Input
Amino acid sequence: MPRGGARVASGPPPDPNALRRNRKSDAAGWRTLPAEGRPGPPPKFPLVDVQPREWDLWRDLWSRPQAVMWEEMGQAYEVALLVRNLSEAEQPGARADVQKVVRQYMDSLGLTVQGMLRNRWKVDQAEPSAPVAEEEQPKKAATPRRRSARDRLRVVDGDGS
Output
């Protein structure tokens, strides 16, 4: 059993909205991924003997926002291994170790919330491309915006008054 020291996934994941943003680990910054996903067809499946279900998963995964980063980092084999294991894990009576491997792949490829945070990725929440005209917009009930901790801070005078 390992002793002491940090583990790969130890501690809380990074938070892009944290108040304290001057840590050394923040130097890498956050990467914003396009909400519409990766454009174009998926790359060639790199493993032998692709099954129909694997091909469906492969196409779906390569259309996601995270695929932009996988392509940039050359992670086609990692995604293919996830696809192969995921198609096996979907079967009734799948072994628990295969399901565990799938979860680990999903985390490392940024397909879970924890994985997105650890990879310091966030999806662009841009406005829709075709704005709805003012009169066509449904009326929303006025709900007060929840203030963040940063909004609630105020400057205090140094003389104690």
The CA atoms of residues 24 and 77 lie 31 Å apart.
